[in-house]
Amino acid sequence: MSFTIHGIGVSGGIAIGHAHLVSHTKLEVSHYDVPATQLAEETARFDRAVNTVRGELENLRGAVPAGAPAEFAAFIDLHLMILGDTTLSVVPRAIIENERCNAEWALKIQTDELLQQFDAIEDSYLRERRTDVIQVAQRVMKALSGQPGYVPPPAGDSDRNLVLVAHDLSPADVVLFKQHQFASFVTDLGGATSHTAIVARSLNIPCIVALHHARQLVRENEIIIVDGTQGVIIIDPDPQVLAEYQLRQREFGLERQKLKRLRDTPARTLDGADIELYANIELPGDVALAVESGATGIGLFRTEFLFLNRPELPGEDEQFEAYRKVMEEMGGRPVTIRTYDLGADKQIDDTARLAPNPALGLRAIRLCLTEPKRFITQLRAMLRASNYGKMKILIPMLMNASEVDQALLLLDQAKRSLDAEGVAYDRNIPVGGMVEIPAAALALGLLTKRLDFLSVGTNDLIQYLLAIDRTDDTVAHLYDPLHPAVLTLLAHIFATAGKSRIPVAVCGEMAGDVALTRLLLGLGLRQFSMHSAHLPDIKQRVLKTSLADTRPIAKKMLRATDSAKLRGMLEKLNA
Ligand code: PEP
Ligand code: MG
């Protein structure tokens, strides 16, 4: 029976394919049938994973230094005990045999069952042990998959026609999808500016988040239409609907092709103002699409994605090679490379997820400053790569003067260490800061006095200004780039930067939203950085905009406080 579910479209376009379910919770796994003849091998695979984890924990136990706190050894003992308990090490074997399913799925079913039991426990100490169960199960899951967070595709299916249906996915999971060619993916959780959604956009396939119950309602292999523009999925469509969407899909493809012709046209308004349109990238492999879309530079390279999905962090040489590749492929066009913004929803260590309020915790520059050695390694790699083009360094999540000063001091240290080794780098490399925390936006002098340029991260700025967790689908409807506070703050940032003669860009998702292009231009923005997929659309809008016409309406919008009125004005602006 055909039915539809509504969510938030985070990447436009239409996909039509077969549903492939990945499991819920952090333990993202696929589910597939195992033939009876292979069940013995599947249980043996599960046993091997359990043994691998036992070995890992025993090694850890043996490596505890004599002076370490007693809780450390106790913690490992507890994990060994959980692993050794039949509920985790034996019951999944029975599930594999009874359900004839893969080991990951059996482990997931059993872990969910255990977690439900934990939720019912009154004793708070015991209830908190659910985290330990999750951690042990994740270790086994990792041992099964061979690499952390890996979502194995089911055997035999062509990725191209698969629509992944998940309860939740981490940004690290999604970045792995770049190796596959899924038609689309949809999730129950997540907000429009969560990093999961952002990476999804860079895959250039239709995606929807915040569907709430899709994972429960959709069955494996069902035909599913994903309309990423409208934020709706249609499951098991009837032939007429299917034909209609096939037609729309073709039209959408043709429209994209048409926009590609704008690639070499300069982004100039009707009244002759030149606008910079840059691309955001997550990995060096994204540069090709950026160049193809006509980006005249990289406005944001989210380098932290180099650090995800791997047991060991990349060293200086590996980072240098990645940065150099981007510089060389951009052929002298500016590359704004951000120091790693790890933490919050981009964790390299699973246990760190347990911070009480990760978005307000140790992330981005805060984390870098607590790990100066790791930070200097990255700075050295960046400086070495600065020789291969026009690099700018961007620091995320700055909040006070001391953070800027400390970051600049560490950059100086990195430079001096290269000087001592006689290694060349760009001595005039510009250093900029991201405006993402309202405090920094309000006291912008902190940044303008110390830095060479600014880039506004509207995703975080809105998250912190409106107090809505960008990863939480239950408050996703409150995300509002047109909130009067957002517009007032943006106008303040653009005006203050202008007065200080400091270049300012926007690199949050607002920059790639064609409905907001004229408004941002009218408020004074001249540099936009967005995912490559949005660039042709934004350029087309710039080409059809007169700054003289947008300014008065944008000014009026700044005075409006009524959200319906604001939307009406925006419509007029875009007419
Ligand atoms: C932002 O916050 O708007 C931004 C560009 O950074 P990120 O989305 O990576 O947090
Ligand atoms: Mg940010």
Give an account of the 3D structure.
By secondary structure, the protein is of the alpha/beta class. The protein has helices at residues 39-62, 70-84, 86-89, 91-99, 103-119, 124-128, 130-145, 171-176, 195-202, 214-217, 239-260, 287-293, 316-329, 364-370, 372-385, 401-421, 438-442, 445-448, 458-466, 484-499, 517-523, 535-543, 547-559, 563-574; strands spanning 3-6, 8-11, 14-21, 162-166, 184-187, 207-209, 223-227, 232-235, 276-281, 298-302, 334-338, 390-395, 431-435, 453-456, 504-506, 527-531. It has 3 domains: 3-23 and 151-257, Phosphohistidine domain (Glucose Oxidase, domain 1), CATH 3.50.30; 37-144, Enzyme I, Chain A, domain 2 (Orthogonal Bundle), CATH 1.10.274; 261-574, TIM Barrel (Alpha-Beta Barrel), CATH 3.20.20.60. The chain is built from 24 helices and 16 strands. The longest helix is centred in the N-terminal third of the chain and has 24 residues, at 39-62. It starts with a strand and ends with a helix. Bound molecules: phosphoenolpyruvate and magnesium ion. Magnesium ion binds next to helix 19. Magnesium ion (MG) binds next to helix 19.
Give the amount of beta strand, in percent: 5-15%
Number of domains: 3
Oligomer: single chain
- Ends distance: 40 Å
Low-confidence stretches: 147-157
Kindly state the number of beta strands.
16
Helix and strand content put the structural class at alpha/beta
Q: Main beta sheet: strand number and arrangement? A: 8 strands, mixed
How much helicity do the residues have? 40-55%
Quick check: average pLDDT? 89
CATH class designation of the largest domain: Alpha Beta
Level-2 CATH architecture of the largest domain:
Alpha-Beta Barrel
CATH topology of the largest domain: TIM Barrel
The hetero molecules present are: phosphoenolpyruvate, magnesium ion
- Strand neighbour order, sheet with most strands: 1-8-7-3-4-5-6-2
